[in-house]
Amino acid sequence: MPSNVQLIWSLLPGTVLFTFALFLGCLLAGWIGSIVAGFRSTHGHGLRGLLIFPISNPVALVILMVRDPAVAWVPLLFYALAVVGLPLGGFVSERIEKGRLENDIHALEQSGEKIAPASMIPAAIPPEQNVWNHPYLEPLAQAGQPGPEGQAQREAMEGRYAALALPQKPAHVFRYADEESAGRSGREVPYLNPFRSFHEIAISTPAGLALLKDQRPPTSWEACGDLLVDYYQPAETQLASLEEALGRPRAQYPYAWAEGSNMLLPHLSKLKSFSQSTTWRSVAQNCQGQPEPAYHDLQTALRLIQIDDSDILISRLVQWAQTVITLHAVMVGQQYHAWTADQWAAIQTNLETLDLPGQVPDSIRAERVFLAQATISPLLNQEFFQILDSVDQMGETPSEVEMARPEPHRTRQVLANVFLGGLARASVASQWRRTLEAYQEFILASEAALEASLTTPWKDVRVAELPKPIREYGVFAGMFLPALENAFNKALNGQTQLRLAVVACALERHFLAQGRYPDSLAELSPTFLPNPPLDPMTRQPWFYERTGDRSFRLYSAGPNGIDESGFYTRGGSFDKPSRKDDLAWIVTEELPPLPEITLDPPPVQLKDGRQLPEELMRRYGLIPPQPPAAPAPTNSTEP
Known about the structure:
Blueprint: H1 4-11, H2 14-40, H3 48-52, H4 57-67, H5 69-110, H6 117-120, H7 138-142, H8 148-160, E1 174-176, H9 177-180, E2 187-189, H10 194-202, H11 206-213, H12 221-231, H13 236-246, H14 267-287, H15 291-305, H16 313-335, H17 341-352, H18 360-376, H19 384-393, H20 400-404, H21 410-452, H22 475-480, H23 487-514, E3 534-535, E4 540-541, E5 543-548, E6 551-556, E7 568-570, E8 583-587, E9 597-599, H24 614-619
Helix pairs in contact: 2-5, 4-5, 5-21, 10-12, 12-14, 14-15, 14-16, 15-16, 16-23, 17-23, 18-21
């Protein structure tokens, strides 16, 4: 691995290095020449010591020039060449490096790649067709714009959509008993565990917390459903407005592309919040025995997944998270056998249309255009200090201190730009050219991995490493590319869960037709699936077991390809090699029991804001002592 000095040396363009070498050479020649001139001149007595030291050398040389111009003009010429050569070399370097960059961009465009932001922005659509022009979502679209109006909308955003926010579990109210004993090993649970998540959300509502305070936690899933349905009751009007907005056929968010990596995306967190609300309300309504409203909310959640207005990676990551969230409602609906065969067929068709891995290459292209090209291109025409500030703040919201930081004096700005501006812009052009190379390598590697995923077990599919480490492609590549490295694996995991859900829908349709689940997945073909389904992670049949007429276990071997009985390790130490990663879909004969919770004692706040440990609170009688442990059972027959 190269050292930092070697890395910096390798990343600077040759034209810049040549200019610096010429500049330093002229300075060195001027310094040595001035010392020689001082010793040769009969007027150099008293100046020779000053000429040796670089700091005092210029002043001493000027004095020598006045006393003996005949010997001083040569070192002065070298100094003049250094002063003139630095900006001239910067000018030449800038022209050469920008020309190379333009040639590379032109070659990419000739190959069909889109580089300019304008080439990626879709044509405008009629407002009445656009989801984001609906009155309910339009303020959220405006919140993504820079300036005072956007800031005002962002400040009002939380309150405007608060009714559809998920209740959050407060600290120090309750814990789950199995979490206390998990420790570093973590908990081995099914990856999708909707009833557990639903229980935590339900008792985190204000009404649920009030029940806990009175030592009366809910004792049935129906009671948990009541808590969450009541919690969302004030949001009925907003939910109706959201559904009306989603009824529009197209979506085009007004992204502020010119902001580059500082572009604001406030709508993404709200889309995820909307998915959470509709998903868990669907679960709650199934717990209440209301399958039709539950199906209606599930359809809304599925429509939220399909808002497809950008390939930017963060948008895709949120979409993939929404997909997994929504699958919880599908699994609970199956646990209750809530819907008709036609409804299950519609859900299956809906899920089959989603192709997460296929979105990855275009996501990388979008990142290249909007988060890189739109960010880097302006630097090519900025002054020296502007480039430094832009790179320093890249991808971050400037703090008040940074915004209040005074600009350098204009004279300093002009001098810095004259002598260093061309070299800085040449370096930016060279760095951006290297970054484009890295992006293209990454796109090609992702497309190759996507092609391989059609025939290769996904546990063996990897996006090939770039020919060089990312940092050797330059500063900008180090900023923008690391976030892309795990995207393909996340897409494969999400798609595996979607395929699990598709098979589960087919199993439910078989159940509704036959009154029982099949003994083998082969029985699903060709009526409910065109071909016998395979676990994409291994290209082998899914692990499937009918555990009763109304229950089954279906799971994938997960990314490690090992059968781990359908379990996934949550929590604990993430560096343990024994962590399990199976992806499971489980339906049981009976509803699972409510998880056991432990009520937390109220915390005692100390003067410095810390909390007194629970052991000390028990020792000093601030909370009740723990009940004594029950005696161990024995086989004795004595009374």
